[in-house]
Amino acid sequence: MDTITALLSGALEEVRPLTDGATASYIPELAEADPDQLALSVVGPRGRVRSVGDEDAEFTIQSMSKPFVLALALVEHGRDAVFAKVGAEPSGEPFNAISLEQNTGRPANPLINAGAIATTALIGGDDLDARTGRIVELLSAFAGRSLWVDESVYASESLTGDRNRALAHLMRSYGIIDVPVELAVETYFRQCALLVTVRDLAVMASTLAFGGWNPVTGERVVSEAVARDVLSIMASCGMYDYSGQWLLRVGLPAKSGVSGGILAVAPSQFGVAAFSPRLDGYGNSVRAVAVVERLSERLGMHLLEPHENLAAPTVSVDSSPDGRTIRLSGELGFAGTERVLAILRDLAGSIPAGSTVTLDVRELARTHPAALAALEGEFNALPLGLRLQT
Ligand code: GLN
User: Same structural domain for residues 351 and 286?
Assistant: First the structure.
């Protein structure tokens, strides 16, 4: 067992004794889940998947489908059109609350049920099959394999989904939903009933972590802009009325579902998913919350803590008879320009008069335009014979 897998396994065993909470029972079929199941999976930048516990256990995706259907709505309609129908604010209320803006009927955000039904209603297609087909296709690309609907969970939710139907009726009365209520909610119920494993969820999370590019299949699934929008909403709204606490303790965009799964995203680092069916009072899995919290702490994943290498390019310096060449590779962000300039200033003091310094930026994988402009400006002001290779 490699070191990271051992670390995952250790964290999993630490949370195994937690047996608080209960499986969701308002969807009868979910109450049947084996409450002792427990699994954790992490996917890194090269697409390596590490999973421990009940990694093959299948369960329905439930609310963890919502960020990905938001991604599809953004792809189909663009940001302005989507957020005209649904807000971008944490509701501070449970997932199934009647959280609609006064006068407009706009739901608070796309990750509570009301907002998710409104988002689902935006997906194009003539009928239930066509609409579900588009959703399944995109979610499968995020997961890197074809996903299927669990027909019995779908039927169970459809039979008992009156609260979601009521939300849809209210939103239709405000013009937030402009397709028939049954079409909107049945599409939503089918998306929630897609079967996944903890591994699938970790791959889906990793695709968001790497800017919409699936590190397992190598496929670009959505644009960086769409992935960033989805993560922004997950950061503030993904854990319902526990979202603020979650950001405080774990510091990662995340999404939970009533089947007991949680997926979390450490941008540029990992996609993470955990699964265990017993839920707390917020509708979040007790053990999944606990294990992701431990991981974030141990792997240093909190988004808001300082990261030494953030946007710092790798710098190498070559000397030749006619001068020095400074080669930059990796990412050049604003903080990175400071470091490169410090190296240049040191060089300015030590190289013989008349020789040139070449700054070669052709190997940079990612450059933020303002950072390059700042570097260029400062570079030209230095008392050196300088050449910039772009
Ligand atoms: N399908 C579930 C519902 O609409 C999803 C809720 C959830 O996972 N929080 O009630």
Answer: no
pLDDT tier at 311, thresholds 50, 70, 90: low
| pLDDT at residue 359 in the model | 85
Residues within 6 Å of ligand 1 by CB = 62-63, 95-96, 113, 157, 164, 192, 257-258, 283
Cα of 63 vs centre of ligand 1, distance in Å, is: 5
Shared domain for 142 and 290, answered yes or no, is yes
Cβ neighbours around 42 below 10 Å, total: 28
**Interstrand relation of 323-332 and 356-367 (parallel, antiparallel or unpaired):** parallel
Residue nearest to atom 4 of ligand 1 (CA): 113
Per-residue pLDDT for 273 more than 90?
yes
Half-sphere exposure of 280 (CA within 13 A, CB side): 15
The answer on 375 and 251 residing in a single domain is no
pTM of the model: 0.91
Read off the CATH number of the domain in which 186 is found.
3.40.710.10
Total domain count, the chain: 2
The residue segments making up the domain with residue 347 are 308-389
Q: What is the CATH number of the domain that holds 315?
A: 3.30.750.24
